[in-house]
Amino acid sequence: MHNFLFSVFLLPLCFNSLLAATCRGEEKLDPSGKYCYVIHKGFASFHDAEKACYDYGGYHLATVPTMIDNRFVYNLSSHANVFSNYYWLGLTDMTADGSWEWIDGSDLNFMNWASDSINGYCGAMRAYDGKWQAQDCAKQYPFICYGAAQGAPTDSPNPPKTTIRPTRKEENMIKFMADSESVGNPNTDPNAVNFYNKEREYIRAVTDVLFANPSSNGNICKFYMSVSFYGYTKYDQQFDHSAAWSQGQFDNLLESNVWDDGKTDQAYNITDAITGAQKFQWSPSMDDIGYTTLVFLTARKDFTNIPSLFNPFPQFDEVVVVSLDGANMPGVPAGVANIPVSKEFNNVDINNLVSVLKCH
């Protein structure tokens, strides 16, 4: 009888142990038992840190929902054995209007701001006291990633968030996907390097004009920009769902795409770019974020065995194809702008694209 009772007593303990949530490697399970947090000791800008968290395992920069979690994350940073005054969290004021949000879309119910948090649009935790402070998103700090623990119970989906934003179309979100594969390998071909550098400067010139002239036809816009290069680049920002809201921020995104240091594998090619464009979404959801445009640049002459960019149609309000140096993408639907651009990327080429991307 005693053995039977002892066995019955052990059953729930064994069952619970089988269901216990687990984390990998240096990750630590949070007090709720649902999420794993990990300190990345390398220094990166806010946008690059979010990208690194995603590449690490589909994670995001850390959300801190309660004071208990804040103490937990602060203790992690205190024992990280890295010297830094700040650690990036997943806090961002993407609209630059004081509407702070967690980058993964979680509700911002708990806040732990320092009294002098006024100089930036991305949020970091102070290393010496765990308070939060607004920072220039381009600054480079170590960062904290988090994601769901393996075997953790899942919460019911949150109801759709209601966010007060300016009237739709006052915010223009533009995602550039640019070619760095069709002309040649920039690690071995100087002509390819020259072409792709000109393409990069072309994008910079177009965004310079848009950021400097945010109004047209009586409309006043706020532009947000994101960029990725498909082909021979060290990494892409296909899944960087956030965006730059100033030319300086955009330059930071633009410069982070560099050649892959001699590697010749095209891990992120035009097929991947097209697939990424078709499932791309901004953060927070672009359902209420304003007018969205995909600008897809290609110098490819042969599209044999390349899937159609328009089947299914990308989840943007508008798609603009930029045909570089005589490229001819097949199957561009009526109503989709197809802008021919010369290999010189001259002022006419700049103005032709700017005229399409003007404030809507």
TrEMBL record:
InterPro entries to which the protein is assigned, alphabetical: C-type_lectin-like, C-type_lectin-like/link_sf, C-type_lectin/snaclec_domain, CTDL_fold
CDD domains named among the record's database cross-references: CLECT (cd00037)
Source species, domain of life: Eukaryota
Residue ranges occupied by any C-type lectin domain in the UniProt entry: 32-146
Signal peptide location: 1-20
Pfam families, per database record: Lectin_C
Keywords, ordered alphabetically: Signal
Keyword Signal part of the UniProt annotation: yes
SMART domains: CLECT
UniProt-listed PANTHER family: MANNOSE, PHOSPHOLIPASE, LECTIN RECEPTOR RELATED (PTHR22803)
Name this polypeptide is given: CBN-CLEC-150 protein
Record lineage: Eukaryota, Metazoa, Ecdysozoa, Nematoda, Chromadorea
